[in-house]
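Re: the 154-residue chain
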Amino acid sequence: MPSLDGGRIEALRMSADGVRIALLVSKDGRTTLKIGRVERQGSEEQPQVSVEDLRQAAPQLTDVSAISWSGRSRLVVVGKEEGGVQQVRYVQADGSTSPSGVLPGVNQVTAVAAADDEQLPLMAETEGDGIVRLSPGDNWQTVLKTGSSLVYPG
């Protein structure tokens, strides 16, 4: 694992193909997103796994609270810009963002789950509305008022 310069890993998510890793790293009161490449070496009996090319992604987001891989090349990220409000947005695997990547507003998101199939709904756990979903071309809809630990298989 490359140096985190005194940062602490708060959460991590592996891409479904096992090639990329996304980390939430906290340091100096901020939690940021870092994306790296997973390398495997060694034998089946003694595998060795390392993270290479770890780099900052979506640097404008200084308070990232939740992440989930959405397909092979992008993440769903919940975070805030400096002095801003929470937003849910797509971030590409190379760390880039675009204004069109911001998803419709939903408040107080604590967790997200996305599927590899982008036609399946994005799921979010919120403090006020419970479990909500966002289907392509739709608005957020409440699924359950109580629930937690969102996950798609895979």
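Residues 8-144 form a domain with the Methylamine Dehydrogenase; Chain H fold (CATH 2.130.10.10).
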